[in-house]
Write a structure and sequence with these properties.
Helices cover 38% and strands 38% of the residues. By secondary structure, the chain is an alpha+beta fold.
Length: 165
């Protein structure tokens, strides 16, 4: 678990450095508490809707298009948005997923256009063969404000199998 946390921290740090490197040279003016609270609320709403859309398996295009084009897909295992689309179109019809423990979202604002998100939740997934998995999930994301709105730049997910039956 320590190694996973180290890798996760390294990925988040690299993402932050990349975003800040690509940001304008002048540092942003100090943000007020009200501005930070507004950004936190906006990012939390977008992140929660994005995650719930994935768990509900409602729209592959909507889910994948929330990932930043800059990285061509936030999940490195997919390598591209096209690969992610193909994976989800194949997997989603073969299973049913149900959120069983409340989605908990924590947002940290690094700049007016950069935020980190930590989400934890538990879900039950049943495949067409009747295999049931109960999984605890902890995710970390770096969100950036693009022209189209908040998008995921980097993401890391750690799953823990709680029960299989």
């Amino acid at each position: 678990m320590r190694f996973a946390a180290f890798v996760l921290a390294a990925l988040v740090a690299v993402g932050i450095v990349l975003v800040l490197y690509a940001s304008p040279a002048a540092p942003p003016a100090e943000m007020t508490e009200a501005e930070i609270a507004r950004i936190e609320a906006n990012v939390k709403a977008v992140a929660d809707d994005w995650r719930m859309g994935f768990l509900a398996e409602r729209d592959v295009e909507e889910y994948v298009n929330t990932e930043s084009d800059w990285a061509d897909g936030a999940w490195s295992a997919d390598r591209s948005k096209d690969a992610a689309r193909a994976k989800y179109r194949e997997r989603w019809p073969a299973r049913d997923t149900e959120l069983v423990d409340q989605l908990d979202t924590e947002v940290g604002v690094l700049a007016p256009n950069v935020a980190t998100v930590r989400q934890t939740y538990r879900f039950v997934r049943t495949d067409t063969a009747g295999v049931v998995l109960v999984i605890d999930v902890e995710e970390y994301h770096v969100w950036v404000l693009e022209d189209a709105g908040w998008e995921v730049l980097l993401a890391k997910r750690v799953d823990t199998l709680v029960e299989e039956g």
